[in-house]
TrEMBL record:
It comes from the Bacteria. It comes from Paenibacillus septentrionalis. Pfam families: DUF3243. The lineage of its organism: Bacteria, Bacillati, Bacillota, Bacilli, Bacillales. This is DUF3243 domain-containing protein.
Length: 83
């Protein structure tokens, strides 16, 4: 997975593919957003940012509360879908 995280465009494509898989499996938008939130929490705790985009996302994640983090997760899903 580390190669996926190296380039932000690769990460967006990976996320887009996973969102599409989830939708094909019948997952709701809320479920997909909650999964994105869990992934964001995992990455925040265990993975150092590999590029400027990830560093900015980490700073936003770290300064936000739980509601803000859910919003970031939802926006990342939307960004991935539009990529």
């Amino acid at each position: 997975m580390s190669t996926v995280l190296d380039q932000f465009d690769s990460w967006k494509k990976f996320l887009k593919d996973r969102v599409a898989q989830g939708k094909n499996m019948g997952l709701s938008e809320d479920t997909i957003t909650n999964l994105a939130y869990e992934i964001g929490s995992f990455l925040d705790e265990r993975v150092d940012p590999k590029n400027n985009e990830q560093a900015i996302l980490k700073q936003l994640w770290d300064c936000g509360d739980e509601s803000d983090r859910h919003t970031i997760a939802k926006l990342m899903v939307k960004l991935a879908e539009k990529s």
